[in-house]
Design brief:
Length: 572
Amino acid sequence: MVRDDPLQAQIDRLRRLRTDDEWIEVKAAVGGLPKSIWETVSAFANTAGGLIVLGLDEANGFSPADGFDLGMVANQLRAGLTEAPGTSPKVSPVPTFDIKHDEVDGSPVLTVSIQPLLPAPRSQMPCYVVARGLQNGSFKRVGDADQRLTPYETYLLNSRFSDDLTDREPVRGAELTDLSVDLVDRTIARLRSTGSRALGGLSPDDRVGALKRINAATADGRPTLAGYLALGIYPQQELPQVVIDVTVHPGIVKSQDPATRFLDRRMCDGPLPTAIQDAVATVMRNLGTARVVDGARGQDLPEIPEEVVRETIANAAMHRDYSTYVRGQQVAVDVYPDRVEVSNPGGFYGDRTKDNVAEGYSTSRNPSLVKLLQVVPMPDGVSTVCENQGSGVALMVDTMRKRGLPAPDYSASSIDHVVVRLARFGLVNPETEQWLASLPGRTQASRHQDIALALARNKGSVAVSDLRANLGLDSDDCRDVLAHLVADGLLIGVNDGPYVLADLRHTETATGAEWEVLNALDAVSPRSIQDLVAATGKTRHALRPILRDLVDRGLITPTAPPQSKNRRYLLG
């Protein structure tokens, strides 16, 4: 039996996992509100939001905590999140929150839902614990832990909505003679041919004036970072680590074997248009082909469309952080047997997040660099790196979808890195089809539901934003798909997600006392009733009906008949 109660379903899931996770934090809160709750509020606000459940004891299988005083804890919680005049909130800024009274196993609990600060524009970020200050009191959620932000992560969140003029700063040690005369002349010619007014009032031979006008040179005639990266003969002379590192791996993770660490590797350097072209060529020559049939005709096409690879690498090079914090880091392109992964330092900028990055408008960390790369010719002399119309990611999504491939996956991105994963194969392959066919209880199987389940299996979770990207549905239709899967007991989640796969072996509801027993057992080492007395603190008399019920429901397996003194128990 699957409970319709969303909170009970989430607690049942945590009991199966035997831990809380990146979305839910459980605290007993016996004797009052624990101080660590403010670290969790900060972490959820600075990451992707989450739910805090107070009144359950994780150490005892998430059973109701003896001595939990809901009224006292609720008052303490509200006081710490109140911003009214004369109050002293425990965190700043206070995120949007929702406090509710609820029940688990018939006992009262208090929940508080914390919304992420992003994507709403904020003048103050990150959220931090006031008593500990900005640098020591800012946290992020990683798995089931609240981790302190690094100074760089704090800097990124604090400056996320500020104008970043890094790309207009002069490059120390660089001169205008370090720029390619050919690239400069072709860029100026391209500007004039398009009818741009950027060079209005300048004489045709005023090259320095033109460079200043397009922010490729400073007022005193030195190359800006944007100009040096886009037009430099060899930008790595002063910025040796600003390259695109393409590595081809033999396995689906980076090899630890020094004998075979990679199959191919290229450090792509030079001005950005050249480095991007070389990186794309390196990736494409290491991809296989897939047979695509259109009507009666078939074509052998690259596993990933070249335009998607180019857009992904170009975005990483254009929108990475070029501040002194991370000039020693490269754009990393890793080619694995199942995917291509592109990572750049800096995280998302402005109101962009992993969930809204495909929405069609442009937000640029490096506006002068992006503007230049719209006009600096690629080595082919025809195209440029970008258009900056905000349509690049949306086109990537559409191109991948038309080829039957998953949408570009940004889920591994973090505060300080943007990570894009491009799958080399479709979501629903023969092995996945076999897995889908094995799932019990499906009342209305459909392609949309298959995609949702495959995403949840491959990524660990699925949200409305994932289905929008992969299926092209509107949000309401995506919610309907997820609601059907929740009703069938295949997913657990609420609202827009994330939703996770239910544990199909143990989808029945168990009480806190039953979970104490389940937590004391595993599938390998049999435990006797005396072992369980020691582990749970319960008497034999109290344990016997619990064990009998768990055996009847198939959640645990006995090793001998009921009368045998050798009877032991294993997880079912």
